[in-house]
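Student: Hello, beginner here. Can you help me understand the protein record under this note? Any guidance would be welcome.
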Amino acid sequence: MSEAAAEHDLSGQWSGFYNYPIDRPPTPFEVELRDNGGLLSGVVSEPGDTRASRGMTLHAVLEGQREGATVRFAKHYDYLPRAHYVVDYHGQIAPGGDEIEGEWSIRGAWSGTFLMIRGSRQEDAVTRKVSEKV
């Protein structure tokens, strides 16, 4: 794998948050992301942020693509009150490949910003190596 391709391989564990366009605190989330040659898939976990979902952990799947330093993906919740809409994300990968910043939108509803940060790939490699030694 070339250094440029490795830099933009987005596979791994990511932490982030998204902001609403109204006066609400940011919502944190965790993503286990897989990047197969630019095709993205993953699983998202985040705390419920409405009166009905407070205290719950919401889950969603995402699918999309990476082209150069640009990513686009769609998030689909498995929580029934949110299952009817798709959240579209569009962002830019920062140099080094460990941050993605951009905007999310729900067509016809609203939009906001997001930021995702990945732990060091070297730390991930050490974790994998330790896990394999068992």
Remarks:
- Confidence is low (pLDDT under 50) at residues 1-5, 124-134.
- Helices lie at 3-8, 121-132.
- DSSP finds two helices and eight strands in the chain.
- The first strand starts at residue 12 and ends at 18.
